[in-house]
Amino acid sequence: MKTVFSPGQLAHDPRHEISDGELKPAVEIPARAEIVRARILEAGMGEILAPEEFGMAPLARVHDAGYLDFLDSFWSRWTEAGRGGEAFPFVWPVRGLRADPVPDHIDGLLGRYSFDAGTPMGEETFAAARASANSALTGARLVAGGDRAAFALCRPPGHHAAADYYGGYCFLNNAGIAAQWLRDAGAARVAIFDVDYHHGNGTQAIFYDRSDVLFLSVHADPREEYPYFLGHAEETGIGAGEGFNVNYPLAPGADWAIWSAALDAGLERIARFAPDVLIVSLGLDPYEKDPISRFRLTQDDFTRLGARLARAGLPTLFVLEGGYAVDALGVNCVNTLTGFEAG
Ligand code: OKP
Ligand code: ZN
């Protein structure tokens, strides 16, 4: 299958993140994409294309105008406030405070448009996130044009970003933007299956009241794991979207036997939904050696994952999400994709 990737996605190159009460080395780094690209070439998996430029319109179908404006103006506001390094929010409009009116000050804007303090922003962040979204959109166009599958090598990732907030290393919801674009291009129903170790809270929030985009996620139980505030089994959708949001939270430590049972349940739900296209939010952090995660998938399990996804028999767009065992990322990613192709 074809891969879509732009070197422009590497421009977001954070130094630090806030986690565990410390300023630590960032884990969502350009090397993640480079090692995946290198393995695709080494394995001869197929062509790597540069994304087309889709402009702002497909982003605005999913994201709030004020949020996009914030991302676009962030660096000039940050530097005008006398800052020059990486930005982190530190104040949020939680219960009892007011999110409207939107503040003028960059420190207020950072809190208004984020949900965590663990996600560094810099001068090149929005440009890299736009390039990443263009890769997802180009992959969607390949699948809409008849390719059985495509791989969008998205980085920065997207599944934690909602209509009007960033967090979890995510700024633009690449999978959600691709899903909406496919709907606008004529797909009646799109399923998004998120297999990242962390719940895809942003994607869930974007489609929570809709029945045309089915969202499913297998992830670590939010009672014990990031993002803590979404991803429980009882979140099933609202209004017209009731029944079209499916969470499979698992206790930390889940191995292939436990994890693949949830995968199979999700695939059964997808078969009943009968979508025109399947989007896989492909997080590689369920891997047993991932440094920030606690599931136990092996490298061979990713091949099995690809094969099971292929059995759905649907045009499939893979969109990269997380995965931080950098040395193993290329193998785990290509195992999934070649497992799919063989399946
Ligand atoms: C992004 B993606 C661990 C801190 C975890 C946030 C994790 C974001 C994961 N002590 N920080 O879903 O892989
Ligand atoms: Zn993750």
TrEMBL record:
Keywords: Hydrolase, Metal-binding, Zinc
Positions of the Histone deacetylase domain: 28-331
Coiled-coil region(s): none
UniProt KW Zinc keyword: yes
Name of a matching Pfam family: Hist_deacetyl
Cofactor field: Zn(2+)
Zinc as UniProt keyword: yes
GO molecular function ontology, one term from the record: histone deacetylase activity
A GO BP entry: epigenetic regulation of gene expression
InterPro entries: HDACs (IPR000286), His_deacetylse_dom (IPR023801), His_deacetylse_dom_sf (IPR037138), Ureohydrolase_dom_sf (IPR023696)
PANTHER family assigned: HISTONE DEACETYLASE 8 (PTHR10625:SF17), HISTONE DEACETYLASE HDAC1-RELATED (PTHR10625)
The family this protein is said to belong to: Belongs to the histone deacetylase family.
Protein name listed in UniProt: Histone deacetylase family protein
